[in-house]
Each structure stands twice: as structure tokens, then as C-alpha cells.
Design goal:
The complex is a heterotrimer of chains A (about 525), B (about 325) and C (about 350).
Chain A (H helix, E strand, L loop, with lengths): L2 H30 L13 E6 L14 H7 L7 E2 L7 E2 L2 E6 L5 E6 L13 H14 L12 E6 L4 E6 L6 H6 L29 E7 L3 E6 L12 E6 L3 H9 L5 E3 L4 H7 L5 E16 L9 H10 L2 H8 L4 E3 L14 H6 L5 H11 L5 E7 L1 H4 L2 H15 L3 E7 L2 H7 L6 E6 L11 H4 L12 H11 L4 H18 L2 E14 L2 E2 L17 E2 L1
Helix pairs in contact in A: 7-10, 8-12, 15-16
Chain B lengths: L11 H18 L2 H22 L1 H4 L8 E2 L2 E2 L21 H37 L1 H16 L2 H16 L3 H28 L2 H8 L4 H14 L2 H22 L11 H12 L5 H28 L7 H7 L5 H4 L1
Antiparallel strand pairs in B: 1-2
Chain C lengths: L5 H29 L4 H6 L5 H11 L5 H13 L13 H36 L4 H15 L2 H15 L11 H6 L7 H7 L3 H38 L2 H8 L4 H23 L1 H15 L4 H10 L3 H29 L6
Helix pairs in contact in C: 1-4, 1-15, 5-6, 5-10, 5-12, 5-13, 5-14, 6-10, 7-10, 7-13, 9-10, 10-12, 10-13, 12-15, 13-14, 14-15
The chains are: A alpha+beta (about 525), B mainly alpha (about 325), C mainly alpha (about 350).
Chain lengths: ~525, ~325, ~350
């Protein structure tokens, strides 16, 4: 036995272990001295916000998701925007005029606008920003918003001209999207995007000072800002992967507010808590059920109609969401100009088993009909499971359907859209808050969700909407589109979410940013 | 334990009987703490098996039932005389979900164990007995798999199979199987390598027994005795893995059955809002069942394998890659 | 085989690592490609027409034959380039540095907790075998093992975070600390020590306690079981009997001989449980919003970010392999019988 010989080696290893334990004891000791120290979020006027959104890219040339959008909003601006409520207003432009054929838009730029580093913004920066988005064609697909833009030209340092491929009356809305954010020409490479940890250069009220992926974004006020100063001393956005940990952080004072997204149960509990305010405003996020109109059984209009008669909107809104969403009767959410309650006028406000039964009987459909509904908990939240359980119960209770529920996680779900799913859950989040974005996107032929819907009358209406000379004409066409869709039912919209932010009671100004533009305007918030 | 009869001298049936008798004897003879562990573990496990088998009779409602007699259950209601463990956000009965959950867990674990035994044990036998290139390649692959955190393998496999089988019991079971095959392979293989060199096996070979006969008659019975305790302990581990999959949302989908891990995942947001009953009871169920299985496994280990007492289970499972040098 | 030198053993052992890593890389690559869903659909599927999705897939080379992609991938790794993530264009090296540091911090302290709890309870249980102390210790070990780490974490958050209100429940530091802390190593505790920033150090330690203890306890269950068994075994060994026979006091026998030797296998156990610990880290990080590799992995997996998932899993596996190598070396060093 050579234990005696190797015991020295044993001792060595033991010593190493002992050393490690020593470190732990030290750590423990340093803790003991700090027993009752409470961390509160802010000494100064810095506001700490929590979110469950995540950031893909900060460079505006390649981002098309809400988490990235919220990071860009305080640091970049477009020619148009929604600085004060849901009404479109010029921001970096003073105004845009269209040619009579709606194919050329000429915009005058605001003077004396500087990027945060002090360099002035001119038409060259604007043209560069648009050209860059079209050149990069980033994998997030934001460039598709500019698919109608043929070219951009300048005329003098303060005038930019957009040449469109086809007439578009809503061009200023496109200018408000992040595809139209103006970046500093000298700082951004033309053919590739900046990485998230690179410094970003914009004209907004804040400068992004530090970004740690998946953890934190730190904003400080832009000292060269052309507009009114932010009402706070800076913003920190903290990222969470679960809303439950975010809720605890808010209750424990680690964060001052949370914008997006709590579960309905958490919201109900937060709204009862002292020192915490749940702010709620008009929202534009919607959920809907898509049918593949080319495949059985949903190629039968009667089946789609029966489901439209049975859709338990009120039960979903009150039982699943505790009132944080509202029943929706059109793909266009209420609150946007042009919205009509089309599905309500066709199928009634409340479910009607009798009418559903009659429709199916008339079409000779044998009941109960077996159908499968798909949903995805990983993209639209675990609450989707409850939402679809509610639907399943309502459809089954009618005795007309026998519903099987299936779910898949998002990566799989999104790559299978329209290929194997016949009826499936989707949500929509506007590129720009206008009824056009809620109609054309869904009803144009070969729409993104691949459901096989195409209708010649609808196509004519879409062309008419794009080329409408006046707002009144445009809104009338939008109404006709909604009515036609309600008759043909490629989708059934069922709810519209409120825009909800939760804050400590010492945060002011939250309500002023909750509107149909769906913007979190951090610069309007203050801490008392 | 080791049979020293010459090759072909005793009929297999008699051997089996004798082995079974010998295997059961220690259980009845067990005394003291091992006996207490064994019975406590068996009691708890049997309780859950009972729940699982008779779920339709015991459970007050179905796992997705949300109404009775035309009256809808309240949402997130406190435990009460009508709902002993309260109700969930979907107005389902927590007690019923816990009971039906036992059925899901046991189904998955039984299928997963059976599959990992069927794959892992023969591979281990062959690899260990024949050695050579096959052995080296298999050991390398299994070690590589072993280096993977097994939760990750299970997640990826679960992704892969949801298309083919849906998010149900079979998918979860296969995901767990893939994570455990390397373990059985390693245990069996190392043991076979050790047994292969025993004199009675040598003797059998010398007498001209074919490899298959030797494996079947001598090696297998010797090695397989290690399996019940390991399988029991593994069942415990498999339940934790299934729960972890469910917690991350990659396990059994809610439309396919009640599963404790998924229920805890959903209950996380309840728990921070003061609603403790939706998460606590499934959690306790997991802890209880896993504790029961572990007690049973360790009890079995100490009673069935008196010879192993000095080696113990742990070292078989977690011994160094070349533990055969020590186990002999 | 007597006479094999330590060096020869090391070389053989190291040589085996290369094919193993190759197998790992291949497995990860294949698993990710055959899994349904792809990164482009995941980020665009909800709002962009399929034609655009296909066009972008083409642009990024996802429609190339698997073999070509595979060779590209291996070639990249040979050059030491793990690539940048597909979704947020983040260099893998950055993920490993930033998120890896968070995981390192968490697992290091979790391991300390596991070792301390495991060694103390295991030694006591083994020394006082079959007494109530033993039964209590074993039961404790079994129950903490039986508690899913996410359930334990949730309870810890509710009890120590909400009910007693002693400790924070998420993140590595409070937002303000994190925003102001200078990062040198990305190990927040080390960073705050370097800067002499004691408030930050306190803050970081307070944030570390719940996750580290949760993960540590979950791992300690196995340690308790194994250390107890080892103590029992060692107490029966020949040399202990010999020591007893020589008339050395039982106390000295136990403390000087038995415990010391019973602890040697702990190294092995610690090493081989690394995979388990990292698996547990995925769940702990998710529960406590701890921005480590596991946390990142779950997110990237959801988005099917091939590059990120491949990179992170390979890092995980390499760590496991490296530690098991290290364990073997230490074992071979301490106990020459192992070299054969």
C-alpha cells in the first residue's frame, strides 16, 4: 500500500478544497456586516423600467420587433412620428407634400437638429438612412416596409424627395416606422449593421450609454437634443425572462415600473397592491384565429360561419384576461380611424348556438364536427393555453364541434404556418397604427400567414385604399374591406389588448403615453 | 450470488427459480434501517401507483373538467370542502390534476425506463463482453453523450419528436430515454468487463460455450442484479427530468394530460400573487414520489445486494470512467 | 499495467478527448438541423410573407446542403471562430465572456455550498452510522435531492424574498449597481473587489445567495449520499483496522485517517457532477433571471439560433470534458493504482 506516500498528495488536494471553502466563509462574513441593507431603485431621478421583451438588433436598419423598437424609440427619430398621442405628426420633418399622383413625396426637414454628438442632421443623413435600409436588406425584414420606395433624392440640405413605385396615400406613416429612422451618415457603415454593443448615433432625447445583451440598457439624456428636455435624469431598462421575477422585483423596489408584460393573474394581484399603480390605455395588439380557407373542413364557409357565431369573446376577455383585453369584432382595433364592428353586425355581439346550428344544418354539415385548433404558448404567452381551453369549451358545449387542441413552440409554429395547421392562433402588432396595416397585411393575396385567401373584390378594394385621394374616401374603402372580410371569414378576430404599464405610485406621466400609437415615451415620465 | 456450476449443467428454468428465490430472500430478511427505508419507499411508491392506476375512480373530476352539474367551478378558488386543493386559473380542480398527474408521470417513467433498459443493457453487454473496436467506439459515443447536460439532450429530442408524436407521453418518454441510455450502458458495460474475467466465465468459455450462451447464462444474470436498484433510482431521476421539461414548457402539453412540472410552471405567476395552492401541491407530489422511489432504491440496494454493501450503488453510477479496476 | 508513467496516462487520456469533442460537435449540429423550425421563420414568421423568409434563408445560406454547412461549421471551429449569433448578431466570444462569467460565478458558489453541506452532513451521517443523526442526514439528503431545483428556487424566492423580505430574488445586482459597475472580468464580485466598491460587493453577494444556495442544495443531495458511503467503507478498510489494532485512539483514527481518505473520492464526484450542475444551472438561471449561459441557451433555443446553441452547448460539454479530465489526473496523481 502506498497510502503513506500519497497522503501528502491527499493533503495537497485537501488544502485546495479548504482554500475554496475559506473564500466562501469570507464572502459570508462580508455579508453578515450588511445585514439589513435594503436596495431601492434610485437615489436620483433615474427611472428603472423592467420588461419581458427582448432585443434583437439596436441598429434600426435591421430590427422588426417590439423589444428592439422600444430601445430605439428614445434614441432615434424619423421624419414623422407619434410624439404626443396617437396622431401622426412631423418630427424631424416640418411637413411632407405629395404630388397629385401620390407617387412623389417631398419633405422639408427641421433645421438645427443635431445628433447627440453635436453633428448637425441634414438631408444627406436622411437619404443615407433610407438607402442603407434598402441596401442592407437585413434578415429581420424591416426593408420590406420600404418595398414601395423606388429611390430617395435630396434637393439642398433640408429637402428630401421620395420616389414611390406605386401611389401611396399613407407614405408619412411609413416614415414614422423604424425603417425610416435617421442615423448619422458618418458613423454607420453602408452595407452592414452596427453590433448591439457599438455606440449608436441618433437625434432622440436620449443617448444609449450602455447595453448589456439580455440584461440591461442604460439611457442618459442627450445634451444636444433639439426638443424639450426629458423629465427624468435617465432610464435603465432591465430585461426579465419571466414576468413573475419582474413582479417580485417591482414589489421589492428594484425597479420603478414595468412595461410589458404581466400575466392576467399577476395584473389582478398588482392592481390590489398599495404603492403600485396599474395604468391602462387604449391598445392596438390583437389576437385572431386564422383559417386555411383552401383545406377541409375550413374550406367550407358554413363551418367558418358557425365558429364566428360561437366565438366566446366575452368569456375570454373576462375569464382568461380579467378585463385586460376587450372583445374585438374586426381585424382593425377600436380606437383607430376606420374601425367598424363588422363581425358584430354579421354574427352578433354574443355567441349564438342556434344560429351556428342553423348554418351548419343548412349546409348539410354532420355534427359534431371534429376540428383541430393550434396555438403557441411560447410566443403569445402561457395564457394562450387558457385562451384556447376557453374556446374549446365553448365550441364543444354547443354540441356542434369536437375540438382537439394542439400547441407547438414558436420556432416550429412559425415555420409551419399555413402548411399543416388548418386553424391557428396568431397575434398582430402594428408596423404603424393605421387601419391599412390591419387590413392590407391580412387580406392581400399571399399574405404572410399563408392561409390561401385571395379575393378579386378585395384586391380591388386594396388598390383603391392605397390610391385614395382623401381620408374620407380611404376610411370608406377600409369599412368595405372589413365588411367583405367579415362575410368571407379568412380569420376571426377575438380580442384587442389594452396598453398596460405598471409603476410605483411615485412615477408620474405614465398615462400620457398609453395610447393607440403603442409607444413608451420614456421622456414624459418623471419621479416625485 | 455467483453461480459456479459448470456450463450446461443446470437448466435455465431452475436457475431462474433459484435466482428469484435468492433475490427475494434478503428482502424478507432485511432488518433495521434498510428495512424501514425499503418499506417506507415501497409504501409511498405503491400509494402513487395506486393513484395512477385508479385515477378514474379516485379522482373527484377529470384533469380538464371545469364544471359539474352545469355549474362552472370558481377560478383560482382557495382549498375548500368542494375542492380540497383549490382550483386553477382554468377552473380545474387541483386535486384531480395531482391525481391524474401521477398517472402521466408513471406512464412516462415506465415507458422511458423500459426503453432505456432495452437499449442500454444489451449494448452494454455486447460492448463489455466483446470489447475491441466496437467497445471503444460505443464508449466514446456514450461518454460524449454523458458530457452533455442531459436536460439539454432531452429538450432537443422533445423538439424533434413533437412533430411526429405530438407533445404527449411518448415524446417525453423518448426524450428521457435518450438521456439515460448512456448511464445504463456504462453501468452494465463496466460490470460485464469485471465479470468477464471471473473464473466461472472463463471455465464456460474454455468448455467451448458460444459467446451468446455465455452472455445469456452467466454474464446477464450476474449483471442484471444491479439493475433493479439503479432502475428505481433512475425512475426517481426521470420524474425530476420530466418535471424540468414540463417546467420549461417542452414536456407534456397541457392538452395531452396533467403534468406536475407544467402545473408548477403555470403556478409560478400565481405564487407571487399569493395563490399558493396551485403550485404547492404538485410540488409536494413530486418531492414525495421522488423521495419514495429513492428510499425504495437505496433500500433495495442495501438488502438485495449484501455483497455490494461495501461498494454501494453510488460508486457504480458515478465511479470514474475506468471504475472496473476498482469493482473487482 | 504497472510501470505506466503518469505522463503516458495523461497523453492517452488527452488523445481520447479529440474524437469525443468531434462526436459532440456533430451531434449538436445534426440535432439542431433536424429539429423542426428555423431561426428565420422564428423571427419573421409572424409578419413577413413566406417568399421573403425564403429569400433571407437563401441569403444566409440556410438552404445549402447540410454537408456543406457542416464543413463550414467545423472549419470555423478549427479556426477558433464560433461565429456570431443569427438573431442578435452577437459574437459567441462575447456570450461566453459575459454570460459565461455569470454562470461561473453561480456554479462556483453553488459548488461551494454543495461541498460544504455534502461533506458536513455526509461525514456526520457516515461516522454515526445507523443513529438518528445518520437517518436524519440521509433523509435530508434524499428530500433535497427529490425537490426539483425550480420548485426549491420558487420556495426560496417566496420565503426569503417576499415573506421575510431579506434578499433580492432576481439578477446579479440591482439595476443601478449593474449600470454603474465597471466590468473588468464580468465576474461582478471580482470586479467590485478590484474597484474597492464595497457597496456593490454587498449588493452582488446579496443577489448571489438565493440562486447559489438553491443550486448548491440541489447538488448536495448526491454528495451526502456518496460521502456517507465512503466514510462507512473507509472505516472498515484494512489500514483503519490496522490503525485501531495499533492502539490509536478511535477519535484519531476517524479524524486523521478515515475522513481524509473518504474525501478523496469527493473530487471525482465533484467532477462528474459538473454536467448535472450545469443542467441545474439552466433551471436555476431561468428561475432567478440570472443572465448566464443556461439562461441565454433557453432563449436562443427558442429562436433556433443554430450558431448560439451550438456554441453554448459545445462550451458546456467542453467544460464537462475538461473537468472530468482534470478529475482523472488528480485521481491518478493521488492514487497511483488508477494508472494502468
Amino acid at each position: 500500500m502506498n497510502w503513506k506516500w500519497s497522503s501528502r498528495r491527499v493533503a495537497l488536494v485537501t488544502a485546495v478544497l479548504a482554500g475554496l471553502i475559506g473564500v466562501a466563509v469570507l464572502a459570508g462574513a462580508s455579508l453578515a456586516s450588511s445585514s439589513s441593507h435594503r436596495s431601492t431603485a434610485a437615489s436620483s431621478s433615474i427611472i428603472v423600467d423592467g420588461t419581458t421583451d427582448s432585443v434583437v438588433n439596436i441598429d434600426p436598419a435591421n430590427q422588426y420587433d417590439y423589444g428592439s423598437f422600444t430601445v430605439d424609440l428614445p434614441i432615434f427619430q424619423g421624419l414623422y412620428g407619434f410624439p404626443n398621442g396617437a396622431k401622426l405628426q412631423p418630427v424631424l420633418a416640418t411637413g411632407c407634400k405629395s404630388s397629385p399622383n401620390l407617387k412623389t413625396w417631398t419633405c422639408a426637414l427641421r433645421r438645427n437638429v443635431k445628433f447627440w454628438d453635436g453633428n448637425p442632421m441634414t438631408s444627406a443623413d436622411v437619404k443615407y438612412s433610407f438607402d442603407r435600409v434598402q441596401k442592407i436588406k437585413g434578415d429581420q425584414g424591416i426593408y420590406t416596409l420600404l418595398s414601395n420606395l423606388k429611390s430617395t433624392s435630396v434637393s439642398g440640405p433640408y429637402t428630401v424627395v421620395f420616389h414611390l413605385a406605386s401611389p401611396q396615400s399613407t407614405w408619412p406613416f411609413i416614415l414614422s416606422t423604424n425603417a425610416g429612422y435617421v442615423v448619422e451618415k458618418a458613423k454607420y457603415p453602408f452595407n452592414k449593421i452596427l453590433s448591439n454593443t457599438d455606440q449608436q448615433y441618433g437625434t432622440g432625447p436620449y443617448k444609449l450609454q450602455k447595453y448589456t445583451p439580455g440584461q440591461q440598457a442604460v439611457f442618459v439624456p442627450n445634451t444636444n437634443y433639439w426638443g424639450p428636455k426629458p423629465k427624468n435624469g435617465g432610464i435603465i431598462v432591465n430585461y426579465y425572462s419571466k414576468s413573475s421575477t419582474m413582479k417580485l422585483a417591482l414589489e421589492k423596489g428594484e425597479i420603478d415600473m414595468a412595461f410589458r408584460d404581466f400575466t392576467p393573474t399577476e395584473l389582478a394581484s398588482l392592481s390590489k397592491e398599495k404603492g403600485i399603480v396599474v395604468h391602462s390605455g387604449n391598445g392596438v395588439v390583437i389576437r385572431y384565429l386564422v383559417f386555411n380557407v383552401k383545406r377541409a373542413p375550413f374550406n367550407n364557409l358554413a363551418v367558418r360561419k358557425a365558429l364566428a357565431y360561437l366565438m366566446p369573446r366575452q368569456d375570454i376577455a373576462s375569464r382568461v384576461y380579467h378585463g385586460s383585453v376587450k372583445p374585438l369584432y374586426s381585424m382593425v382595433p377600436a380606437g383607430l380611424p376606420g374601425h367598424t364592428d363588422a363581425y358584430k353586425s354579421f354574427y352578433g355581439a354574443a355567441p349564438s348556438v342556434a344560429k351556428a346550428k342553423a348554418v351548419l344544418a343548412k349546409a348539410g354539415v354532420k355534427t359534431p364536427l371534429a376540428i383541430t385548433l393550434w396555438y403557441t404558448p411560447s410566443h403569445y404567452g402561457d395564457v394562450s393555453a387558457d385562451e384556447y381551453a376557453e374556446m374549446q369549451r365553448a365550441f364543444n358545449a354547443s354540441g356542434l364541434f369536437k375540438v382537439t387542441l394542439k400547441s407547438a413552440e414558436w420556432a416550429q409554429y412559425s415555420s409551419t404556418l399555413g402548411k399543416t395547421y388548418d386553424a391557428f392562433q396568431l397575434g398582430w402588432f402594428p408596423d404603424y397604427p393605421d387601419a391599412e396595416d390591419y387590413t392590407v397585411s391580412f387580406y392581400q393575396p399571399a399574405a404572410f400567414y399563408n392561409n390561401g385567401y385571395a379575393d378579386p373584390t378585395m384586391n380591388k378594394l386594396i388598390a383603391a385604399e392605397r390610391g385614395a385621394k382623401t381620408t374620407a374616401i380611404r376610411l370608406r374603402v377600409l369599412g368595405q374591406m372589413q365588411a367583405l372580410a367579415a362575410k368571407q371569414i379568412p380569420t376571426i378576430p377575438y380580442w384587442q389588448g389594452n396598453m398596460i404599464a405598471v409603476s410605483k405610485s411615485d412615477i408620474q406621466g405614465v398615462n400620457s403615453t398609453l395610447d393607440a400609437a403603442f409607444y413608451m415615451r420614456f421622456w414624459k415620465l418623471s419621479k416625485s | 450470488m455467483a453461480t459456479t456450476a459448470p456450463a450446461g449443467g443446470i437448466r435455465a428454468s431452475r436457475r431462474k427459480l433459484a435466482t428469484a428465490g435468492r433475490a427475494l430472500k434478503p428482502v424478507t430478511q432485511a432488518r433495521g434501517i434498510p428495512r424501514a427505508m425499503l418499506w417506507a419507499g415501497a409504501g409511498i411508491t405503491l400509494f402513487f401507483v395506486f393513484l395512477a392506476v385508479f385515477a378514474p375512480l379516485i379522482s373527484p373530476y377529470g384533469f380538464a373538467t371545469y364544471q359539474a352539474n352545469g355549474k362552472r367551478f370558481p377560478q383560482l378558488a382557495h382549498p375548500s370542502s368542494e375542492h380540497l386543493m383549490g382550483t386553477t386559473v382554468q377552473s380545474t380542480d387541483v386535486l384531480s390534476r395531482v391525481i391524474w398527474g401521477a398517472q402521466t408521470e408513471l406512464k412516462v417513467v415506465v415507458i422511458a425506463l423500459a426503453m432505456s433498459l432495452v437499449v442500454g443493457v444489451p449494448l452494454g453487454l455486447l460492448s463489455g463482453y466483446f470489447g475491441g473496436a466496437l467497445d471503444r467506439v460505443l464508449v466514446l459515443i456514450m461518454d460524449a453523450l454523458f458530457a452533455f447536460p442531459y436536460l439539454l439532450i432531452a429538450i432537443v429530442i422533445a423538439f424533434l419528436l413533437t412533430n411526429a408524436f405530438g407533445g404527449g407521453v411518448l415524446t417525453a418518454a423518448i426524450a428521457i430515454t435518450v438521456a439515460y441510455v448512456p448511464l445504463y450502458f456504462r453501468v452494465v458495460r463496466n460490470h460485464v468487463v469485471a465479470v468477464r474475467e471471473e473464473s466461472y466465465v472463463d471455465a464456460a468459455r474454455a468448455l467451448g460455450a458460444r459467446p451468446w450462451t455465455v452472455i445469456r447464462k452467466y454474464v446477464f444474470f450476474n449483471v442484471v442484479q444491479n439493475v433493479p436498484p439503479i432502475a428505481t433510482l433512475n425512475a426517481a431521476d426521470a420524474i425530476l427530468l420530466l418535471a424540468a421539461l414540463g417546467f420549461l414548457g417542452y414536456g407534456i402539453q397541457p392538452s395531452q394530460g396533467a403534468e406536475w412540472g407544467y402545473d408548477i410552471n403555470r403556478a409560478v405567476s400565481d405564487a407571487s400573487s399569493g395563490i399558493w395552492w396551485t403550485g404547492l401541491f404538485p410540488g409536494i407530489a413530486i418531492v414525495l414520489l421522488v423521495t419514495g422511489l429513492t428510499l425504495l432504491g437505496e433500500g433495495l440496494n442495501e438488502t438485495i445486494n449484501p455483497v455490494l454493501r461495501r461498494r454501494q450503488f453510488g460508486e457504480i453510477e458515478f465511479g470514474p470512467l475506468d471504475s472496473d479496476s476498482e469493482t473487482t | 499495467m504497472p510501470g505506466t508513467s503518469l505522463r503516458a496516462y495523461l497523453i492517452t487520456r488527452l488523445a481520447l478527448v479529440i474524437p469525443m469533442v468531434l462526436i459532440l460537435l456533430t451531434m449538436v449540429f445534426l440535432l439542431m438541423r433536424v429539429a423542426p423550425g428555423d431561426p428565420i421563420s422564428a423571427s419573421l414568421g409572424g409578419h413577413v410573407p413566406p417568399s421573403v423568409v425564403n429569400q433571407i434563408k437563401h441569403q444566409l445560406g440556410f438552404d445549402k446542403p447540410l454537408s456543406v454547412q457542416y464543413v463550414d461549421y467545423l472549419w470555423g471551429i478549427v479556426r477558433g471562430d464560433f461565429g456570431t449569433t443569427i438573431t442578435d448578431h452577437r459574437p459567441l466570444s462575447n456570450i461566453i465572456l459575459v454570460n459565461g462569467a455569470a454562470t461561473l460565478e453561480l456554479t462556483f458558489f453553488a459548488m461551494l455550498v454543495a461541498i460544504v453541506v455534502g461533506v458536513v452532513v455526509g461525514l456526520v451521517a457516515g461516522r454515526f452510522r445507523d443513529t438518528p443523526l445518520d437517518v436524519g442526514g440521509r433523509l435530508f439528503g434524499i428530500v433535497i435531492y427529490a425537490t426539483p431545483v425550480f420548485f426549491l428556487g420558487l420556495m426560496a424566492q417566496l420565503v426569503f424574498g417576499v415573506w421575510l423580505d431579506w434578499l433580492p430574488t432576481s439578477d446579479r445586482a440591482s439595476p443601478i449597481t449593474q449600470a454603474t459597475l465597471q466590468t473588468h472580468t464580468n465576474l461582478f464580485i471580482v470586479d467590485s473587489i478590484i474597484d474597492g466598491n464595497w457597496t456593490a460587493l454587498q449588493d452582488c453577494i446579496r443577489h448571489l445567495i438565493l440562486p447559489a444556495v438553491t443550486l448548491g442544495l440541489a447538488t448536495a443531495g448526491i454528495f451526502i449520499r456518496l460521502i456517507r458511503i465512503n466514510v462507512i467503507r473507509t472505516l472498515r478498510d484494512d489500514y483503519i483496522e490496522a490503525a485501531r489494532a495499533r492502539g490509536i485512539k478511535e477519535k484519531d483514527v476517524v479524524y486523521h485517517h478515515a475522513f481524509k481518505n473518504a474525501l478523496v473520492p469527493v473530487i471525482t464526484v465533484v467532477g462528474l457532477n459538473m454536467a448535472l450542475l450545469l443542467g441545474g444551472a439552466v433551471l436555476t438561471e431561468t428561475t432567478f433571471n440570472w443572465p448566464g449561459l443556461g439562461h441565454a441557451l433557453v432563449t436562443y433555443l427558442e429562436n433556433r439560433d443554430y450558431t448560439a446553441v451550438q456554441g453554448i452547448i459545445v462550451v458546456f460539454a467542453l467544460v464537462v470534458v475538461a473537468i472530468s479530465l482534470l478529475v482523472d489526473f488528480i485521481n491518478a496523481y493521488v492514487d497511483p493504482r488508477i494508472r494502468y
